[in-house]
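Reopening closed ticket. The problem is back. First fold of the pair:
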Amino acid sequence: MMLRRFFLASLLLASSLFGEFNYLVENTNFTISQGSTFPTVQKEYLYNYNRLRLNMDYYEGNYFAKLIGDGVNYFGDEFVNSNDFKYIQQIQSDTPFKTQTSFKNYEQGSIYAKLYRLYAGYEDDKNRVTVGLQNITMGVGRFWTPTNLFNPKNIYALEPDEVFGVAALSYTRHINETTDLSITSSLREDNSLKYAARYKTFQEFSDIAIDAVYSDITKMIGYEVEANLGDTGIEVRSEGAYILSKLKPNMQDIDFFQGIAGADYGFINGINLTIEALYSSKSFSYTEIFSNLNSDILTNLTYSKFYTGTSLSYTFNIFLDGSLLYIESFNEKNSRFVSPTLTYTLNDFNTFIIGAMLQHGEDGSEFGSFKNNTYYLNYRLSF
């Protein structure tokens, strides 16, 4: 009921304003079979995850605003009463205000509402300023983005790009047609500030960017490079970050370098190939990673020092697409993560996806320690 009132009020408010207003309603439904995310728990769960999303955009001259709100439902008695679900309930945005309601349990499920994005701004030929709950873009990696300490994607998630927004003020100055300077200030859950600066320019044959991030406990300086390899059609890229931070529980100082190198190529027959490698000068234990789930360098805390990733996608026809993601973790015991998907697009409004996320390796390896293979059917409806 609260979610309905919120959506209705938002629609009435937007329709009362002058300017261009667009909205889209999307429903994403997953039926999921997965193992526990805890290594010591040998348990399989079957449950349903549903997200109803309202996406609204408003434009008036040089001004713009965006609102994305979600109603989320988990259905499956065994899963909702598991430790895995309790872990999901503990994950919150790093903002000074709550972006989601409390979970409301019912007989076999749990429901809550979430504010995913809410921001407004101004843009002209030389300037863009945005304030509110937003996504801060940094990095050029397809699988990993070491320089992004705001909204890093999680390549191992069902929806890697579904990340919490940050409460931020961001400003970009378009110095000329090939050069931008961006400055960001975000307010964190503890009311401390995190700052970032990014200078990006095109030099002869490549885009180059220098990134910097500063907060009370984390400092980062990084680079980004992206270019076409002559006339081959191959796009190459690299990014790297030197990070100084503190880790719980003792808040000990750490410093390390992390970088990626990758390439993309589209074949004539419709196959698209992406390869990428990640190197980290330090690796971290499971204890260190799970003790720092709220750290802004969580995705930089890797169990292995070296990874390679490959992604293949192919369009069979206008209705059917397939893709395969393969990631190898190199350690004393190698292990791998494999994710195949098959997508059937019925029309502009209905999409069906069958997929799996498989983990394999010896006991004690990164992916071999977790027997939580996931299989899912995803149905997306938009109108």
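Second fold of the pair, where the issue appears:
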Amino acid sequence: MKKIHYLAVAAVLGLAGAVLTLFILTQHYRASYQQLKMQEQEIIVMAKDYQVMQERILRIEKSAKGENRGVSAMIGELLSSLSISSKLQSVKNIEQKSFLDISRQDAELVVNDLDINEAVNLLYLIEKGSYPVSLRSLEMSRKFESPDIFNLRLVVSYFQKK
């Protein structure tokens, strides 16, 4: 009879140990699962960023394969497509760098007397247009006489294939 009690106690203790072990393992795997889900979300965000960057690189490479016009000619063409070339005050070449098989020319533009629509269209065309150009910096100021008119100082990078 004592042997049966010992076996019963041993079975209950063994069952309790197994349940406790399973509970601890479940908690461990649940924490690991949550950590993996967070890492998956981070990877998804990085994959989207990578895809956007890849599309931008392909757009620049595609548009940079054209004839090598130079930054001044490209800016003139860009502004004339918006019919604001008369508002260009100056274009100043800043620097030229090369990396891999693409060269980059930086230029500073000063465009005066733009209304808000013209300014937005210019910035949109620089960032999303088919020109191999990227906006590096922007300073926007209002005219004192008429606050609806803006002056822009832009630093743009023009990319071209070697």
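Update: turned out to be a display glitch only; the data is intact. The chain has three helices and four strands. The radius of gyration is 32 Å. Please close again.
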